Amino acid sequence: MDVSVQRRMASELLKCGIERVWIDPEQLDRVKMAMSKDDIRVLIKEGVIKKKQKKGISSARVKKLKEQRKKGRRREPSSRRGAAGARTPPKEKWMSTIRALRKTLKQLRDEGKIDRTVYRKLYRMAKGGAFRSRGHLFLYMKEHELLK
Questions:
Q1: 144 vs 127: CA distance, rounded Å
Q2: Per residue in 21-47, pLDDT tens?
Q3: pTM here?
Q4: DSSP string of the chain, one letter each residue
């Protein structure tokens, strides 16, 4: 039975696409007799015509993977996509390094382990990218006997 006209009217009333209109297969003859939108409204009220639920994409698998990554799984080299600079951008890496160095230098200056002139010298060196990490900074200070 062709109920395409009724289906189209129902889709307009239900505010959805034609594919999402469900018509009770046992009541097709009643639907066929419906000629106006009022008739379709009555059928919708009776539950002969319904709107199908939208199809969604399950995020269960994504959630599971996220949980595992939180625990530290799935981070081995074979799972990595993109360069190191794409995973943590160079600027972010620099920011974390320089903040750690500056914090350390301030701490050493406030504790009196280095004086003002040494602090300024090391601060400028850090800004110029002379030190890879805090460990590298301490190594430099030990080699040059800058710690009191």
A1: 19
A2: 999 999 999 999 999 999 999 999 999
A3: 0.55
A4: ---HHHHHHHHHHHTS-GGGEEE-GGGHHHHHH--SHHHHHHHHHHTSEEEPPPP----HHHHHHHHHHHHT-S-SGGG--S-HHHHS-HHHHHHHHHHHHHHHHHHHHHHTSS-HHHHHHHHHHHHTT--SSHHHHHHHHHHTT---
